[in-house]
Structures are given as structure tokens and as C-alpha cells.
Amino acid sequence: MFNRVPWTEMLRSAVGTPKSARLLDSSPRSRVWRVRLTDRRLVIVKRIADGGDPGADAHTRFAREVAGLRLAGRASGPAVAPAVLATDLSSRVMVLEHVDDLGRTDDWMPGYAEALARLHALTGPADAGTLPAWSGPTTTDAESFLSLARALDVPVPSRVPEELAGLLERLDPAPHHALLHGDPCPGNDLRTADGVRFVDFERASLGNGLIELAYFRMGFPTCRCAMSVTAAPLAEVENVYRTHWRGLTGKDVPGDLADACVGWLIQGDALVERARRGTVDHLARVPAGDFRWGHVSARERLVHRLGVVAGMTRDHDRLHAVGSLSSALAGRLLEHRPKLRPLPPQDARPW
User: Which of 26, 143, 160, 311 is buried most, with the most CB atoms less than 10 Å from its CB?
Assistant: First the structure.
């Protein structure tokens, strides 16, 4: 049966014999079960399914997740991901440590930021090639952003194309080797007595950790549950992240957080769920009509990101013109759609 836990002889010899199993909620890209073994241990079984991701086939996603989890398993002290107990490549099944999630807490972000810094600090130049390099915005994304301004009749300052070209160069992942989760969304983090552990590493990569630190400012751009983090909590979580990174590496976080935020802004694929990414120019859809992902619309996500970038780059030497354009675009969208709502606050995250 399709819902039956896929337990092969290889897994039986490595882990044990299943006694009972419960199918859990998961994305269309996988099937996940909580399995009780005959020796009473609980484990998690995950099978990577065909389809659901236009950017990678099932075997590639399986290999990527296993590699990411094994790199995450290097953590000394509290773990930052479940341990990999066994894998079966032929059936694309992995058996993972079962982690008890303590559930809801109002002050969830500092622990999340600490675990994110610890995850990012686990890898370095010697790990090049163990995972794909982070795939960021392209010249096509930059041109789509400029086309959006033209479609909305917003003048483009003359320096914007030059600033965007420089941004793409600075976002080159080649010099950076932080272990990026790839989709560190609320719901992909489990709160335990020892700290946060991340799950679902199907998009793990190597790059600059600021790409994921930017999630707090940019409303969690790859996540269904977009939300806004206000000034005081934002300052706290960014300080937590930078402090733990410095303590683990002996260095300050490299790069410019404003660059990472603009990188998310100009990617139209960050307005839609994964199955729809890479299919059309989603920024080009914005002038013609709004569209939803979860409870938040594309225009609402975009106005939030435009406002963040405008505020961050007001006095920025290399992104000032991009910031001016962002401010004008946000104003134009709100002028035509005054009922667009702000993103919900950080305490509105799902559990």
C-alpha cells in the first residue's frame, strides 16, 4: 500500500524490526512515518517521493538531505539535527532519530537563531563539493525586478542596474562554505530540552550564513508562514546569531546582510511555494493581479520586503539607488492597493 512504511531488509538489519507505524503530515515531496520498533524505540522514517520539486529529482534530493544531515551531525554539544540511523538508497528511505518536540513557546526566536549559527559554523572550505553551492539570484532575476518597476511606471534610477550587477558578484557563494539548511522555516525546527533541531534538509547547500539570517528581516522568504519580526526581537536574534558565530569561528560573520536581503527581494520564486518555482516569472505576475501562498498574498510579501530593503539601504554606499527604487515601488503598490495588510507578527508562527 502507498501509505505502508517502506521497511527493507537492509533497514531491518541496520535498525531493527518495526512493530507499528503512524503516517505523519509532510510535504508532497516526501512521506514520513513515526515507527515503533519491537525493542520499543521510536524512529522516524522518511521516503523521498517523486515529483513536487521542479529543481531536482528524487534521488538527488535524497542524497542532498542525507549529506546535509550527516554534516549537521558533526555538532559538538547539543545536536542541531536528528541523527541518521540508516539509509537505503535504492528505495530513497532514511531512518532518523526520533526527537521529542516540546511544542509552543512564545520566545522561540533566540534559540532558533543560536541553532542556526551553530549549524552554519559546522562546515568550511574542506567541505567544498559535499553539497551544492547555494543558488542565489541571477541576472534574469535582476532584469525581472527592473521590468517590474517599468510595468508599474516607477522610474528606475540610473545607478540601479550597476548596483544590481555588483550585488550579484558579491553574492557569489564560492568564497563561503557555511552549512545552509535551505528552508529553515518555522515548522522545520523542533524545540527540545537541549535546544532547537532542524529537519528537512532537502535543499541543504554551502554558502554564506547571512542568506538565512536574512529570513528574520525578509519575512521568512521560502516559507508558507510569512511573518514580520519587529525591531527589538530582530536586534536580539541577530545579536544572538553573530555572537554564537563569533564564539564558534573566532571571526565576525562575513559579508553584508543588506546584500542578502536584496538578493531575496529580487527573486520572484520567493513569492511562491517550491512546486511553482522556476515555472514562470512571478514578479511579472504582480502588476496584473495578486496571488496567495498560505494566508499571505504575493503583493503583501513583496511590500514587506521592499520596505525592509528601503530602510536598510537608505545610507548604503553600494545599494542606495536600489533602496530608493524599493521605496518607490512599495509606495506605488500601496497607492493602488491600499488594503494590502502588513505581514502577521512573529508570534503568529504555526506549530
Answer: 160
